[in-house]
Write a structure and sequence with these properties.
Elements: E1 21-25, H1 29-35, H2 40-61, E2 65-72, H3 80-95, H4 97-102, E3 105-110, H5 118-130, E4 137-145, H6 147-163, H7 174-179, E5 191-194, E6 213-216, H8 226-237
The structure holds farnesyl diphosphate.
Function: Catalyzes the condensation of isopentenyl diphosphate (IPP) with allylic pyrophosphates generating different type of terpenoids.
Active site: 27, 75
InterPro entries: UPP_synth-like, UPP_synth-like_CS, UPP_synth-like_sf
């Protein structure tokens, strides 16, 4: 069936009317490396560069919340050297705390940090504390993160409150659940971008993405550019968001 589009389509992104929150599934690092005959760790290194550039660009154009999927609860299944390579990239990013403060970016880690190396846990705490009052943008790094695990964690906390008599079951609402997620207090993502040609969201921001616009792109994450982000924003702005209404 053919539906005529009523909306006037934009030819270029409207930077005065940006999504508040963008999520990135940073996929395709392994394939990028393989195509070049390089080890997968080289792909992650290139991906980390893209990530840093995207943080800068998102902050500069005025995106208020940005979330990247850096390491999922399932990624532990990868070879030890690859996991270590990703953790090392993360270490070096976390150590640049001073830069973040200069860039006015508040940094938060979404996920269960308990199984991470103690030095990484300490770096996370330091960066989260130091950047707490930065107002330009909130950067969420999903690390040892899974959407289902996040919801399970929230439900456990609420069940504990019910058990202690602090909360009646009838008082559990969508808002109380949202308030117990790692993203508590932040707007849901308006736009989620997955490069690399895969068409799924892989347990990323499961609850928060109920009404997100999904943009899938063919480019691999290490090749993802500012121009690609502009293209994704344009695609988002040309969609008709109705949130279940008409
Ligand atoms: C998915 O690509 C990517 C990851 C599992 C790791 C993402 C990590 C980074 C971009 C670098 C570190 C992050 C920070 C925040 C400094 P893949 O390996 O699954 O690619 P493939 O599907 O082509 O194999």
């Amino acid at each position: 069936m053919f539906f005529q589009k009523k909306k006037r389509l934009l030819a270029k992104p409207d930077f005065d009317n940006l999504p508040q929150h963008i999520g990135f599934i940073m996929d395709g690092n392994g394939r990028w490396a393989k195509r070049r005959g390089l080890p997968r760790s080289a792909g992650h290194r290139a991906g980390a560069k893209t990530f840093r550039d995207m943080v800068r660009y998102c902050k500069d154009i005025g995106i208020k919340n940005m979330t990247v999927y850096a390491f999922s609860t399932e990624n532990w299944k990868r070879p030890k050297e690859e996991v270590e390579a990703i953790m090392d990239l993360l270490r070096s990013y976390l150590k640049d705390a001073f830069d973040h403060r200069e860039e006015e970016v508040r940094c938060l880690i979404l996920g269960d940090t308990a199984p991470l190396a103690p030095d990484i846990v300490a770096l996370i705490k330091k960066l989260e504390d130091e950047s707490r009052d930065c107002k330009q943008m909130t950067l969420n790094i999903a690390l040892n993160y899974g959407g289902r695990a996040e919801i399970t964690h929230a439900v456990r906390e609420l069940a504990g409150q019910v058990q202690r008599g602090e909360l009646a079951p009838g008082e559990i609402t969508e808002d109380t659940i949202s308030a117990h997620l790692y993203t508590a207090g932040q707007p849901d993502p308006d736009l989620i971008i997955r490069p690399s040609g895969e068409y799924r969201t892989s347990n990323f921001l499961l609850w928060q993405s109920a009404y997100s616009e999904l943009v899938f792109m063919d480019v691999l994450w290490p090749d993802f550019t500012r121009r690609d982000l502009d293209r994704a924003i344009l695609e988002y702005q040309n969609r008709d968001r109705r949130f279940g209404g008409v």
